[in-house]
């Protein structure tokens, strides 16, 4: 990961910190950030960063300027130009903090506030316009910590460094979160205990009237915690309950307690029983087809946490706060550490519903006579479209997150994908799947590259784990084969590159009747399909296909 | 003292084992002027002490910090 940190003040110390983890661009001196981002031949662009952080000090930006509004406009224009001309780079630009309020009469108000807002507002408008720009919210860190803690006068006078070491550490953590989220590394599922976690007390003993959950005082600790968890859920994280309880006692609270913020339908699954929690979590992982390493488990009981840690080392098990008045901060910390999200897609907002439908499909499968009967009964509908500006965000997200059914596991950012499909030779497709239980949204990405007039090769082929096992891949690959066969191509070259997780598709192309051309010692496989032989290959056809 | 050594190692990005109270600006190339300031600031913040502005240039080796930490 190559990143760059630009500023109008000295950030060498922060850069030196970040260099331990990333390849960081070092500018000559500071204060040249405008030249760096405007000049296409600058050191910055020849370095070729994936992400550029521009951390601006408002005081320095406006120092000695009489026309502050104008300066803000000018700087915003520079930023817009850089962001527009470099769609492959993701920019994070800070908001500003103006702390030396000028001494003025009460009537004239605080000009600094208005300037801070002008900058924030202009920047936000740019963010709405450009996908590759985000606000770097340094102002919130200043406000949370207080200027006393955030700035250091001594460092400023000694070395022109504005921020304290504490502040630097916070900025470093913030940058780490942005990078992790950019890479699509967030966890998927938050598994929650009930007693003394979502409410105070033990429902089996105190009863529904006796537990602590309310708008004010003691019970508000848990209600506020639930509100935060709901906010996390709304960003596309799925919630599940794993609790040792009598099912009837606990479900009564979830369904009937008037202060439950989280409702039954907010949870993808409720494992309320007396089995081992580790077993319940393992079952959950299988039923949802989500890796254990994508799960975070929250429980107030240290014995339960220890047991899950021991049985399932892949699951993240954070310590529960000793002081339950800190639950809201704990939720924020969980969000920052495991679920930090730069942007959400439509699929994120309906994710819980999608997983709940999947659970219903599993039940339908259990009651079907045969698996094929079950697949036929689903009334699957597969719609294939080309990748375009509207759907590229979700397509990029899929390339970042899909591990199991992913033949080449190439990760693309939105910008890279857009650049790729605008390149002569590459073509990108996505597939949407729905069935009688509901809409799964976009679940597949296919990218091809024309090698010559007669050969086309597969760059990427992935399918979300949510719809694996339904032979949807047969319909999609069948469509791609037909498309190129009709266009006059003779051969289709495909690949399998092994990773830790994609063993499920190790022999996909063997099953589809491709000829194995080559396997290297690492297990990389190369295949070919002669389009003339296509009619000899069998493709399972479940569901209706609507193409382009 | 253990904490101080760890801090110095972290800021200078060196092995803990290579740092002692005698480690000095003179014999350590990583201890440049930027890292000097960072060391002062880190020591102040983590030990919750003040090293007066005027005394900063007189800190020559790791041991010199102890005077302020012990006070």
Automatic annotation (TrEMBL), chain A:
Tell me the domain of life: Bacteria
Q: Which residues form the signal peptide?
A: none
Query: Which SUPFAM superfamilies would you find in this protein's record?
Result: Acyl-CoA N-acyltransferases (Nat), HAD-like
Enumerate the spans annotated as FCP1 homology domain: 188-307
Tell me the InterPro entries matching this sequence: Acyl_CoA_acyltransferase, FCP1_dom, FkbH_domain, HAD-like_sf, HAD_sf, HAD_SF_ppase_IIIC, MDP-1_euk, SGNH_hydro_sf
Protein name, per record: HAD superfamily phosphatase (TIGR01681 family)/FkbH-like protein
TrEMBL record, chain B:
InterPro entries xref list: ACP-like_sf, PP-bd_ACP
Q: Which domain of life is it from?
A: Bacteria
Name the source organism. Acetivibrio thermocellus AD2
**Organism placement in taxonomy:** Bacteria, Bacillati, Bacillota, Clostridia, Eubacteriales
Pfam families under this entry? PP-binding
Q: Where is the Carrier domain?
A: 1-71
Protein name in the entry: Acyl carrier protein
**In the record, which residues are listed under signal peptide?**
none
